[in-house]
Give the backbone structure.
Amino acid sequence: MKSKIKQLTETINALQANSLEELEVLRIKYLSKKGEVSLLFNDFRSVPNEEKREVGQLLNELKNLAQDKINGLKETLLAAKASGEKHDLTRTAEPIKLGTRHPLTLVKQEIADIFARIGFTIAEGPEIEDDWHVFGALNFPPEHPARDMQDTFFIEKNPDILLRTHTSSVQTRIMNSQKPPIRMIFPGRVYRNEAISYRAHCFFHQVEGLYIDKDVSFADLKQALLYFAKEMFGESTEIRLRPSYFPFTEPSAEMDISCNLCGGEGCPFCKYTGWVEILGCGMVDPNVLENCGIDPDIYSGYAFGMGVERITNLKFQVKDLRLFSENDMRFLEEFKSAY
Ligand code: DAH
């Protein structure tokens, strides 16, 4: 009996298994009711009484050894299986969650693409500006209300350094540094000291346009804007120009498009007028050309300026301006398939 136990102890110590299935076979072979270890327990009855104590102890040790061995092999196999799974090169890749582009970026890009097709290039200017580039050169009289503390965020006074209130300031910079012909758009962020609500914000985005050359006429302006409106809002879009006033253009106009929701029939969106306003424009005032070193006797030009939020609202019926700066993923993801 003792030699049997010794032999079995050696065998069990040397056990190896390559898989959980193999291990189960071993467990049954040694530890099940009819397994080799259990059978030795059956033989225990025939052990002489004086040896029972010693043999009993050896038997228990053998049983524990067998259990420990089987459990140890099982753990090793499971661990190998888990780490093998981590490096399973045949598995398909985790899907990468793509971010979305901001709706204002998408619309700004579309505006830029449309004007690029008729020869407009892009330039940008600083958001922190001096009074001259934002107002002075653009023919704003010193007492003009747009310079007032109500509208403008001032950074320093005397000389005035401020956050630009419109991208028209980039006109000043470009005309001062380049010779005509100039055919450019200037997208960018602008700031105004307004109370934040669903329809006003203290910062928003504009795209400014400028075309300076010999013999530029109001008809050229109208044609470029009609082309833009049709590209942006669809072939059937109509435009109308209403006389208006801006210090830096003469004559000045505001442009409406036929309501892109009802097609001009009249609906709550266009307040039953059939028209919605989208931008300001005009012929660059000769004073402005002169202020910026361009001879108004040789050159003329047109300019226009539009709000990117406004265009986006018209295109996608966003009813609350604040959504654009709240970074709510649910809102931003709505534009995933817009372009
Ligand atoms: N700068 C004007 C604004 O912020 C928009 C504008 C109107 C720009 C007429 C122009 C223009 O270039 O000709 O309200």
